[in-house]
Amino acid sequence: MNSKKILVVEDNEDTREILLYRLRSMGSYEVLLASNGKEALEMAARARPDLIIMDLKMPVMDGWDATKELRRTEWGKDLPVIALTAQAMERDEQKALDAGCSDYIAKPILDYAILRKKIEKFLGDNRQS
Prior knowledge:
Blueprint: E1 5-9, H1 13-26, E2 30-34, H2 37-47, E3 51-55, H3 63-71, E4 81-85, H4 90-98, E5 103-106, H5 112-123
Parallel strand pairs: 1-2, 1-3, 3-4, 4-5
């Protein structure tokens, strides 16, 4: 059985490591890491992840622009993207959805059950039995 690939795009190394650990404990996901939107697009083009968790505020290329670029590609136009941002303003959620994100979660993530539910909504239940 092929495990689903999740690309985590986050410029903060600690947050990346926490997400990597949490995602691995949620199921048999293959987790890929990128530190900015440009790196994420290059990695996604090669690895074709099943889902992207995208920080919105990053150097080089932010998550807004990376998601818009992704939506212009044939392979990325329907790819689920969960926006991740510390700027948890109501407008940001709508802005993320308008930019092409499929869903939204605020940082810091205090309840990983919420993240698991969002991932399962897009990928189905992928826990190890």
